[in-house]
Each structure stands twice: as structure tokens, then as C-alpha cells.
Amino acid sequence: MVSSIRQQFNAAFTTEKYQQFLTDLHGKHTDAIEFRIAETPIFFDKTFTNKILSACESIVDVITQPNFNELTKNAIPPEFIVPNQNDYAHFIAFDFGICTNKNGEIEPQLIEMQGFPTLFGFQVFFEEMSRKNFSIPKNYSAYFNGLTPDSYIQLLNEIIVGKWNPKEVVLLEILPHQQKTRIDFYCTQDYLQIPIVCLTELIQEGNKLFYINNGEKIQIRRIYNRIIFDELQQQSAEIQAKGNILLQNLDVEWLPHPNWFYKISKYTLPFIQHPYVPETRFLHQIQTMPTDLENYVLKPLFSFAGQGVVIDVTQTDIDAVADPENWILQKKVQYADIIETPDTPAKAEIRIFYFWEEGKERPIATFNLARLSKGKMIGVRYNADKEWVGGTIAYFEQ
Fold first, then answer.
1. d(CA 208, CA 255)
2. E strand map for 84-184
3. 382 domain residue, yes or no
4. Edge-to-edge, what's the strand order for the sheet holding 91-100?
5. pTM, full prediction
6. 258 FRET partner, CA 20 to 30 A, in 103, 139, 268, 368?
7. pLDDT tens digits along 23-47
8. Same domain, 138 and 172
């Protein structure tokens, strides 16, 4: 999107550089990266940076308004409500597709958001290896608000570990060493020195939780939660039963609290009005259905990994919905073929990280990840056997 930098990067690119980049990435934790890594980062100028941050801040305005909890009181499936919700989401992620408007200008369009962590640890290492292997302009940064790798990790540590001994703060996931994002768990452990604990390893005594570390039983004071409760429903009966522990009134701090996963999600989209947020309405509140349904996407409010999303919507799809209060109709976003590559251009999606410190009135933008695609949608199965696609990072003009 910054044509001069793109041309320079592509001209200097070699397969050998890319292979060394992959070697460095995979060398930290062998066989821990299962997803494809793209051959290039993305470069954004100040104009685009201001656009995407404007959209993010507008959404934060909605999230921080006094009646937000009232607006989202129906966002959580009753069976997934967890006691002791705190006052704010420690982590928020905003996903944007990179599009062009009717004037041919590059702009972001919000796809979705979540009050949940993402690859906060891995992207630090990813960015370090990007700079090692590729020529990144010095006046471009992947971080926001003046953060550096060191200050970013310090902020992450202050939020996640805080006053506790790192042994008392656990990164909790379902079968973490089998997850495709496990590289992030390992990098987070490297940076913060917190243990990775599987849901199945929890020990409950009354309202307290423990785990075993080298033969020592340690009380869990704080959970850095990486469990998506929707995903629990995809597990065995034994694991689902173990997950019921988390729905109890426990003497533990959540970070972020699981309720925020649902509150800051697709459910919030209809409440946001911004040029870079596509028109979104609850299905049951639409009195007159659009005649151009092909320009909309039908999404269930509660689904895991995009399951149930209808891309090419018809009236038949609408009529088949038995619980319209649990669905949204969102104006379709047309990704632009905007990233020049050696063969066909790639589409791009970017995720902006927001961190919310205790005692602060608002969260702040901190870092990002990005993905490139040449398929119909962003995702591995739509990009099989393609190059210059996959996970990457974005750099922003300072």
C-alpha cells in the first residue's frame, strides 16, 4: 500500500531470505508453528494508520460508555455465564479487512472483534525475526503509542502477572500442546515465565484451584484465559465436565474474564456507527429485508472459528433461521486485491491489539498481526497451494 516500499521489498526478496526467516521462526520452538507464514509484511502510511485507529477508538467509545453492560446483557449464552465479572476487558482485538472505497481509496472495514487474547507473545518474536531477515524502514513500527518490544513486554507482564508470583498465574487452555496457536503459548511463557496449564490438570478444593508444578501443589491466583467456551462444546464429555469447574464461584482472578469474550464480539456490532464499520443489524429486528442479500453476510452470534457463517445469503437462508435473535446480518466487506506479489495480488486482514491497564479509563492500541489471502476468504483452507499468503505483521509509518 506504500508503493515505493512494496516495490523495494519485492525487488530485494529472495527465496533464500524467506527460508532463513522460516528457519529462525521455527528454531525457537521446533514444530510449534502449524499455520503458513507469509513471505512479506504489510506497510501502511500515516493516512491509513489514522483511519484504522479512528475506527478502533470509535468502538472503544461504545465499549466504555456507562450503559455498555446493559446493552450487552443478552450477549452471553446463559450456560456460559461466569461469576465475578470485572469492570473491563483487559484485552480486545479488532479485525479489519483492507478494502477500497468508491473513490478507489484504501480503507479498513471492521470484520469482527473480541474481548479475548490473541498472539500477543508470538508476534513479538515474529517482528524481531522480520527485522532480522528483511529490510524494514526505520520510520515504520509494528507497535503503537510509542511502545517498543521491551516496553510492550513490560506492559503485558504488568497486566497479566501484576502483583502475583508468575507461578501463581497460569495460561489456561484446552489441550494447549495440541492447539495450532501453541507457538504463542510458548512465547508467552518465554517472556512472562508463567506456566501453561491444561484444563484437565486443574485441581479444585472448595472454591480454590490448584495445579501441580514439579511435584508441588500451587494455588492459582490468576488465570490468563485462552479457553474459548464455545470450543468446549467440541470436546469429549470428560473435558466438558471438567470445564464446568470454570462456571463456579471461584477464588481466582480472570484475565480477561470469560464474559467479555461474548460482550465484545459480533453482538456489539449493531451498536457501532462508523464509516469503517459495516452496517450490521440483529436479524430479529429487521422489519424490511434488504433486496440485495447477496451483499450481506449472515452470522450466528455464537459460533466457533466462523462455523455457521453464510457468505452468499438468500431469502431461503433467512427463512431457515429458527432463532433470529441469535443472528446478525452484516453488510459484506469486499477485500481489495491490494498487496502486489510475484504472481497475483493478495488480500489482507489486520488485527489491532488493545490492552486495558488497571485504573485506566480506556484501553490503548499496542501491536498487531496480519494475514494475507488469495482465496475467497481469509483462512488456510481457502489458500491451499498458494504463495505469499498466511500469517504476517503490519508496519505503520511513524
1. 16
2. 91-100, 106-114, 140-141, 169-173
3. yes
4. 106-114, 91-100, 347-355, 364-373, 390-392
5. 0.94
6. 368
7. 999 999 999 999 999 999 999 999 9
8. no
